[in-house]
């Protein structure tokens, strides 16, 4: 499903659920255990839960992502941004031609540091998880690589839980352990699975959002100038990026629980659906003939980049805040910053789930 209306309807329809028990092909053994997306299907986190199970899990972590809690993180995020921009400037000075990789120096470490601080990851674990998450979102790897990466990630997060049980901290991992051990609301598998979801999605999407925003803004310098001159808001630009080039394209999967019709298509019970969150934002029926153009002044920048309804992304406020703190400082310090290669020469991430580039070389001016 790719149109805005079809995706919106599917997200809101109670006959379409997230639990794999509704998928006929999976339950009849037609999906091999080494299928590259299998870990996105068999998981036991909020992403694959419905009804009371989903409500229970969501309630346990929602307090960590309230607008008030996110606002409390702002000073720390600002400090991280300033330090990363210092690193970026130093790297440019050492490069000889002023060209540096914005993805590896800023777009990746900003959300990784924020989410790692939130969950209490130590310095040694952070780069290891960054590597594993990168493979987790990579659909070009072999099934064996995908499975070994998943098991390695599981072992790393099991170690994190053991460390936090031994030495609790003021972090979300400790809070989830308390929910597991004291209130018995989480099973051990649910505890690890939800860490997989929060930590991986918590920085992969924000990293891609930063890169996509820089590409669009430098490619539309007239609109960037409007923002710098105070004629438009950074928040408006961010919403337009989320509409036109969101960091996530698909999130596997949803399943029909009965024979039904959606967007004029007859669907049998037990069918698996992939919803096109990115294509929904570019739907001409929703956004007119200019749906494929970047325009921060358009009246309707509504999108489904963070999903919709009961599975709306808990981290949306945090992602918006991080990007809104970074972009003004980035272009204030480096007003002539530009992508150093042609758009066609940027290598897209090998993923049907996330949408970004593997590297973003920029020239600081």
UniProtKB/TrEMBL annotation:
It comes from Nocardiopsis terrae. Signal peptide: none annotated. Belongs to the cytochrome P450 family. This is Cytochrome P450. The lineage of its organism: Bacteria, Bacillati, Actinomycetota, Actinomycetes, Streptosporangiales. PANTHER family: CYTOCHROME P450 YJIB-RELATED, P450, PUTATIVE (EUROFUNG)-RELATED. Keywords: Heme, Iron, Metal-binding, Monooxygenase, Oxidoreductase. CDD domains: CYP107-like. The keyword Transmembrane does not apply. Pfam families: p450. The keyword Iron applies.
């Amino acid at each position: 499903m790719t149109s805005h209306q079809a995706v919106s309807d599917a997200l809101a329809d109670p006959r379409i659920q997230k639990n794999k028990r509704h998928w006929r092909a999976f339950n009849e053994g037609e999906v091999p255990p080494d299928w590259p997306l299998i870990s996105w299907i068999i998981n036991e986190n909020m992403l694959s839960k419905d009804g009371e199970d989903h409500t229970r899990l969501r309630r346990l972590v929602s307090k960590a992502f309230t607008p008030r809690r996110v606002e409390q993180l702002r000073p720390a995020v600002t400090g991280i941004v300033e330090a990363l921009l210092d690193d970026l400037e130093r790297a440019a000075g050492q490069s000889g031609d002023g060209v540096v990789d914005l993805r590896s120096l800023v777009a990746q470490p900003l959300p990784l540091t924020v989410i790692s601080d939130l969950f209490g990851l130590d310095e040694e674990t952070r780069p290891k998880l960054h590597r594993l998450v990168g493979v987790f979102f990579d659909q070009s790897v072999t099934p064996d690589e995908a499975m070994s990466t998943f098991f390695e990630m599981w072992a790393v997060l099991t170690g994190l839980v053991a460390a936090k049980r031994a030495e609790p901290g003021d972090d979300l991992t400790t809070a989830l352990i308390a929910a597991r051990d004291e209130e018995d609301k989480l099973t051990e598998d649910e505890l690890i699975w939800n860490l997989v979801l929060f930590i991986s999605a918590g920085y992969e999407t924000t990293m891609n959002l930063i890169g996509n925003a820089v590409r669009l803004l430098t490619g539309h310098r007239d609109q960037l100038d409007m923002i710098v001159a105070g004629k438009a808001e950074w928040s408006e630009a961010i919403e337009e990026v989320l509409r036109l080039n969101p960091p996530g394209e698909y999130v596997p999967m949803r399943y029909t629980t009965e024979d039904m019709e959606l967007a004029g298509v007859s669907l049998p019970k037990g069918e698996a659906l992939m919803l096109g969150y990115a294509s929904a934002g570019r739907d001409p029926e929703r956004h007119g003939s200019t749906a494929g153009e970047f325009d921060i002044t358009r009246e309707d920048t509504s999108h489904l980049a963070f999903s919709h309804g009961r599975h709306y992304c808990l981290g949306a406020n945090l992602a918006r805040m991080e990007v809104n703190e970074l972009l003004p400082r980035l272009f204030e310090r480096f007003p002539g910053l530009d992508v150093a290669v042609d758009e066609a020469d940027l290598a897209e991430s090998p993923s049907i789930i996330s949408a970004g580039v593997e590297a973003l070389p920029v020239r600081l001016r």
